[in-house]
Structure prediction request, 304 residues.
Amino acid sequence: MNTTDPAFESRLKDSAVATEALLVSLLSDETLPDEVTRPAHLMAAMRHGSLNGGKRLRPFLLRESALLLDGNEQAAMRIGAALECLHCYSLIHDDLPAMDDDDLRRGQPTVHRAFDEATAILAGDSLLTYAFDIIAAPETALPDRAKTELVLALARAAGSGGMVGGQALDLAAEKSAPDEAGITTLQAMKTGALIRFACEAGAIIAGADQEHRQRLRKFGQVIGLAFQLADDLLDITSDAETMGKATGKDAARGKGTLVAMHGTGWAEEKLDALTAEAVDLLAPYGEKAFILQQTARFIASRQN
Prediction:
């Protein structure tokens, strides 16, 4: 199932361009109040790990979720940039030799290859910290209560009970393969937690009630599962040139995935089911949910 709707494709591209431009501004060498200086070598590494293209899917989900509920678009853009900084930190660290040991990311040398391991670690640390700076900064035009809720939600999604914990489980899975429930838990943490946050954050930005917040949170959980399932499928069926990173690594390491466990046919059927569930979750919003529903279809059918 391919998503070819021109309105969706245009909106996704425009959002990526806008996010990239905002990141360029945020990651400049110019210091902020209370900063002493921004070391040029460190900033260059941060930019290398962040300004390398990509679909910027998480900021897109966050922005569209906020707009669905009439939230502040400019605030959503800044929170999306914060989320992307945190996401890029995780990729820089995941690529390190002690972790996934990758040489390519989006078709370019990974940060530790382009610079060195120590600089890559520090670049990731800086991006992680900066994410919360962006949320809390006065330039983010949201009430303090909303900022506090966003900081808490992102910390929970990114930390030991979320993304980082999922990465720990993923490394452990190379030594002792988890069962199906273990794989699902791992993936819901490592990949799904930030996608879930992106969707729930839109409701927080809009000041929406718990019903809307929980509906968007559930939508994020479902498409997060679809995203990882599609990723695992592509790891088997795609190639490094198309993906912009190494493929076939899960099989080479003997790492368990749901695709390896059940086969590609099962994975394709499961992706169809997850897409249908995600689309149905947003049905109460009518035509306003069209772009987010298309995003769910895109996630399940993407080619890289």
Remarks:
- The radius of gyration is 19 Å.
